[in-house]
Amino acid sequence: MSQVTTQPSIDQIWEWLDAVPDPEIPVISLVDLGIIRDVAWEGETLVVTVTPTYSGCPATSVINMDIETALRGHGIKDLKLKTQISPAWTTDWLSAKGRTKLEGFGIAPPQPAGGPEKCPHCGSKNLTKVSQFGSTPCKAHWRCQDCLEPFDYFKCI
Amino acid sequence: MTREDAFSQFLLRMGDNTLVLGHRVSEWCGHAPVLEEDIALANTALDLIGQTQMWLGLAGEVQGGSKTADDLAFLRDAWDFRNVLLCEVPNGDFGRTLMRQFLFDAWHSIQLGRLMKSSDERVAAIAEKASKEVAYHLERSADTVVGLGDGTEESRRRMQEALDYLWPYVGEMFQSDEVDAEMVKAGIAPDPASLREEYDALVSRILGDATLTIPESSFAHKGGRTGAMHTEHLGHLLTQMQWLQRAYPGAKW
Predict the structure, then answer these.
(1) What is the band of A8 on the pLDDT scale with cuts at 50, 70, 90?
(2) Searching chain A, which residue's CA lies closest to the CA of residue B126?
(3) If both were cysteines, with which of B155, B193, B203, B251 could B151 make a disulfide (CB 3.0 to 4.6 Å apart)?
């Protein structure tokens, strides 16, 4: 008797994960954020490898719970979440789609130069840093000198 | 001393530094002079506690028992802690807190840079992760030390007082003992003394920009990283930090 396989494909799983929003910045998905490092079947077990953004980020445990809830909701029974810290997460792993969505949401995407390129509200380049640290570990606090609106900048690491 | 004992001591030193300093910094939550500084301090504390989970988690693993990072953080008494004394001294005013942060961040960033080349890949991985966060800590604490040092008459006076008070706690970070010798032999960690030159260059540059004077005395308080003698402040800190687990053993979030 040939074995009937009911395992969803790896592509399918990535698609499901791409529908799970980041708990703190719900406009982007966990896949956009670049923290899902690997998805693989090990026999009957689905192994999802996740890397934390910042080591103390309180969203990490919520993220793991959200992944589990989403995949169980799609009928995955045998699931293992693996934490991987090396190579360390970098904002280079943000997807292009994620960067565009961040900007639309009012969060300036990370730039290699170390500061935002332009105000996510009015596009001005006349900007000033308010604080190195913002509302979550991954963001800094900036302000536009033209439209005077404060905004979050996704720190480049 | 076996290699495992030395490795475990080394990991406790790393993890206890970040735990105790992380707790101290978190004491500012809701009390900082302005909201942005409050948020920055809380973020720094959060990074340090996150790094603690990795260091103490690995310490538990190396010890081979069933101890978790939480067990090590909440169920040890003062004499079992291996943090340098600098991390446990009280916050004082905002200036002293930032001066302490700078003096620690400067050491921390150099140490993590060396540990990224550790022969133990778990140590190298934690260092790689932590060093990205610490680069931000150092940038901010150095900027603030310069801003307050080269600031008003009062802020400069307070920063000089902070430096005079804290400087005798700097030397302990560069002391070597048999634990370090064993780590050097195994290629796991550098000799603490070998970090001093780079540290002095960095710290004198920033403190020079801050128009502050480094005290001449090289006297160093010690006893934290060996556990021989902590200050009286650590016990008080632990009564706060460990209270919940002591009063309600095994309580879970």
Answers:
(1) very high
(2) A85
(3) B155
